[in-house]
Structures are given as C-alpha cells and as structure tokens.
Write a structure and sequence with these properties.
The structure is a homodimer. With about 350 residues, chain A is of the alpha/beta class. Chain A is about 35% helix and about 15% strand. Chain A has 13 helices and 14 strands. In chain A, helix 1 (about 10-20) runs parallel beside helix 2 (about 45-55), helix 1 (about 10-20) packs across helix 13 (about 295-315) and helix 4 crosses helix 5.
C-alpha cells in the first residue's frame, strides 16, 4: 500500500495517476485540510474536493478546482445580493459544501463524510482528510495575519509572507485511516505529491505524531519536487520560498525535505541539479514531472513506483545506482538520506 | 397607505396587483414567516421569497414558488450525495438562502435582510416579514407533530390535521414596519390576501398585539376569500377546513374572519353566498378572484380599492349599497361587521 500526501492540483494529478495504475486497496491519499474554511456558513475543503473531483473524473482541468461543465447561477445571484463572491463556488460544487456542512453539523467526522462522498461519486481509491480536527493554515504577511483562502484566493498570493502557522496542528491527530496507514506494516512507501511544501505538505507534517512516524518509517519516503527550473508549475511556492529567504530551486526543495525523505523526483529540466541533490544524501529520480493529461499522470506515477522499488531493493550502500535515473545522470545515491544533515 | 397581509402564492399575486396600481409608499406587505425553517443549514423564508420574487418579476408562474428560468444543478448534486431533496431549491434561489442565513448569523434582523434583498432586486414597494422573531407553524396531525414544510411539502398536505399551533407567536411582536403601519394614522385599509386563513393569515394574527390592533382599527379591514365554489385555488385550505370540522365554503371564511374584517371579497362563482355573508354582518364585494395573470391581479386589486373606498365613505347605516357589488347582487351591508357575532 502506498500512502500519498497531497495538497490541491499537483496532488490531485499525481494521486490520479497512481489510482489509474494501482488497485483501490493499494492507495491511500491523505489530503491537506489546513486550507479548509467556513465561508458563507459552509464548510469548504478545497484540497479534498480537488482530489476527489479529479479521481471521480469530474474535475475542471482548466481551473484546477471545481467541477467540469459547472454553472454559476447561485454565484451570480449572490453577487446581485451583495454577498461575498471572491471565492468562486459553482452550483454543483455548492451542493458538496452544503451536504458536507450539514453532515458535520450532525456529528459525522470529516473522514466519514469524505468516505460517503467518494462512494457517491464512484471513487474507489481511498481519499481521506489529513485529520478530522480543525487545523488552520495562517500566514503572517505584510498585510497582517491572513487565513489561507484569504491569502491564496482573495489576495491572490500578493502579500509578502514572513511566517506560516498551522493553528491547531500540533494537537490534531491524523485521521484514523491516515494514522492506521502510518502504522501499517504493509505500507510500501510514502509519496509527497508535487504540492506546495510550505502550504500543502507542511500542514500534514505538522500534525501530532506524523513527522515522527515518517522519520521512523522503514518503508521508503519519496517526494516529487513542485518546482521546474526554479518556478512553480502553479501557485506561490517559488514566491514564498523567496520571501522566506531561500532561493527557489529544486535544490531548496531537497533541503526542505531532507530529513524526511529517502528520494526526490525532479524534473528533466532540473537534470543538472541531480548531483547536488544526491550529494545532500537523497536518491534522485529524474522524470518529466509536468502532468498535462492523464497519460502524463500515469507515466509519472509509474516512474515513482519504479523509484520506490529501486530504493526498497537497493543495498544500503552509497554507490547503488538509481534505477529511475537515466544512465547519463550524474546521480549518487545515499542510504543515509533520512538522517540529519 | 394600504397594509397587506400575505402568505405565499395568493398573497404574492394580490400584492403584485396592488403594487402595479399604487405607488411604493402607499403599500406595505407584511408576510407570514410561520413557514420559515432551517433546512440544510439555511434559513428559508418561503412566503417572503414568493412575494418578493413576484414583485421583482422574477417568480416562476408555473410552480408558484422559486425563480423563473431556474437551474437545478445543486439539487441534482445534492441528490447524488444522498442529501435531502424533498424541498426543491434552485441554484439562484439557493443563493437567496445562503445570503440570508449569512446575514442573520451576523446579527441582522430578517426585516433588514429583506429590505436589502428588495433593494438589490429593484422592488420599491415595501415587503416586510410579519415579525423578526422566530415563529413556527406546527401542525398536529394523525402522523404526529409536523412542522409546516414537512406537512406542506414533504408530506404533500396528506396527513389529517387536528390542530395548528403558531409556536412563539404570542410573544413575538410584529416587525417594526408592520407595527408602525398598524399604528399609523395614515393607514387607509388593511387587506387580507386570498391566502390560506389557517396557515398563512392566522400566524400573522397570532402575533403579540396584532389581533387587538386590527380589532380597534378605524380604517376598513377587508379579506379576500381564498375559496371559489368551496375549493381552494391552490393548497390545502378546503381540506384542512373539513378536517377541523367545518364545511369548506366562502361562508365559512366569512365566519372565520367575522370579528376582524369589515368586508369580504368573494368570487363571482360564489355569488349566491353574498346574502348569507351580508347577513353575517359583512360588506361583500363580488369579483373574479382567480388571478391567472398580472391583468387579473390588477383588476382584483382595483376592485378591492373601490371596495375599501365604499366602506370608508358609506354611512354607518345598514342600507348603504356596496359599490363593488354588481347592481343585481343581493348583498346587504352591515355596519356592525367587526363586532362580536
């Protein structure tokens, strides 16, 4: 079984690729809920919805969020009534939030609601929230404190970020299925999706016990860099990296994940960073990480599974070649990848 | 100024007719909110919405509720998710409830929210809730206690009704504008719309002080019978009348309103009940009360205004002819109309 840690769009794409090549029982996707918020009285779980909509084949590939072929009549009326419309909610999407809010109010957990929605939409691979507790990603910016969606959507990631907090995370246990997966001896690997490390993966890692569990895992842990040539495919990862005083680069992603992962999947276009990242002690897999369609998603997923196998089967010697890297790749593997720097 | 007491469809139609022939400052429509309920976490005010949508020209004339040209994508998705769909909410209509719920949660009164919605939709005639307090119409039936929408929509008025309560009404004051109108010396008349007397008008009359104010009003009070030939144009008025042990007839409507109104508008088809109703002490206006279109609404509204004038100007002698009744009508007017039987 592969445990997949995912944020929004990038996470959804890779999770979908894995779901296309692995049977349902072999995948568990634990999704960031630090972006969740109550808006217009509705409990909205943007990342969870993006992942589920994608695996259900309902997602809007153009926006990266919401449902394909969506209508916007509620939003148009809400605008006419002077309501808040900066967070776009399609008519069908709205029903998701209404149904979720109603069930949470009746005492169901977010895990239970998510499982019911997956069933209703025919999603057989397991998608679970990272936690059933409330965790809020809060950004300290030059415009003051901003909750995630206010920063990300309303303010279009424009404010300068000084610090990011995950309020409630330290006391929030992972959701039951996520916790069980972390403790499951059948766990074959953990994959960090090419989601924003600061905003999507970090909240998951900040949950009570998760970092510790990952650090002590015998199964391989691999991450996929969300940067290509120092730029994010989508979103503010590179911008935030700069604002936090770091150089936006896949090398910085490697440094960020260094003590947690055994290997890093980097893009072909970052090929020349391979040796540097390998020198940091990580296995490196070089691949086309840009996922423009389902075929791309499946191809990257396949590469990652090969990479995982190569890590799992390789001897703990620092000369073992990386099966995933092209022969010409100057990658040096290092078995002490998840130790301290 | 004319104060109009209205329930749903029939109320909306007559209020619209009056609004088409009177300037905005001359009409105040106080609408039943005993049907209001919280459903899917949303505060829904069905009668208020029907009246506002109608005066805004947005109403769906086929259903009698909701918005013309509505889409149903949220409802379809909600159904797929196993949510409650017995109360049909169109996509645009949903925005009304989301916006209302949000504003009530932020501390606005229903009167304030309603005024804002009217402004947003270009409705210049004043439409106000009967009260800003919570009042719930509850039906005692052979299936047990049912709140209004569960009886009316979910159970399609099928259960047999033994009793109707308006929970909270006795302690709920009328809304500020409604209360002000009742005390306004410029009040020219009060009109009870052809709404269900038991379910739509009675809750309004049950509010703290309203019945007393109406009984002591010097301005004429007139009601429009919702029955034609012993049958309701729409809804369960006749059925409930029977279940409560009365004969469904405009004569029974007259008896129901006897101590409150000076005159009753009855349909042409109930022409032969005129003498009976007049003998009960009420002025009678005979008119076509079926409103199939706006022209019908305006015609009935005009007749009612004439009827009001005739009551206001007639000497308190029991021989004054009713200006609204056709010359052939065997109607006898009676000046003691609002006294005890």
């Amino acid at each position: 079984m592969i445990l997949v840690l995912a944020g929004g769009v990038g996470g959804a794409k890779l999770a979908n690729g894995l779901a296309k090549i692995l049977p349902p029982e072999d995948v568990l996707v634990a999704v960031n809920t630090g972006d969740d918020f109550v808006h217009l009285g509705l409990h909205i779980s943007p990342d969870l919805d993006t992942v589920i909509y994608t695996l259900a084949g309902m997602n809007n590939p153009e926006t990266g969020w919401g449902i394909a072929g969506e209508t916007w009549n509620a939003m148009a009326m809400l605008e006419r009534l002077g309501g808040e419309t900066w967070f776009r909610l399609g008519d069908r999407d709205l029903a998701t939030h209404i149904a979720r809010t109603e069930r949470l109010r009746k005492g169901q957990t977010l895990s239970e609601v998510t499982a019911e929605f997956c069933r209703a939409w025919g999603v057989r691979h397991r998608i679970v929230p990272m936690t059933d507790h409330e965790v809020a990603t809060v950004l300290h910016t030059d415009e003051g404190l901003l909750s995630f969606q206010h920063y990300f959507v309303r303010r279009r990631c424009e404010p300068r970020v000084n610090r990011i907090d995950f309020v409630g995370a330290a006391n929030a246990p992972p959701s039951p299925a996520f916790a069980a997966a972390l403790a499951d001896p059948r766990l074959r690997a953990v994959v960090f999706c090419p989601s924003n490390p600061y905003l999507s993966i970090q909240p998951i890692l900040s949950l009570a016990g998760v970092r510790h569990a990952l650090e002590n895992l015998s199964a391989p842990v691999v991450a996929v860099s969300p940067l290509i040539g120092g730029a994010a495919v989508k979103g503010p990862a590179a911008k935030i990296m700069r604002e936090l005083g770091n150089t936006p680069s896949t090398a910085e992603i490697a440094r960020f994940y260094l003590n947690l992962v055994d290997g890093l999947v980097i893009d072909d276009r970052d090929h020349d960073l391979g040796p540097c990242i390998a020198a940091m002690g990580l296995r490196v897999c070089i691949s086309d990480t840009l996922m423009n369609n389902v075929a791309d998603q499946m191809q990257l997923a396949g590469k990652i599974l090969d990479f995982i196998s190569s890590i799992a089967t390789s001897a703990p010697a620092n000369t073992s070649p990386n099966s995933c890297s092209p022969p010409s790749s100057p990658v040096v593997s290092n078995p002490t990848s998840r130790g301290p720097r």
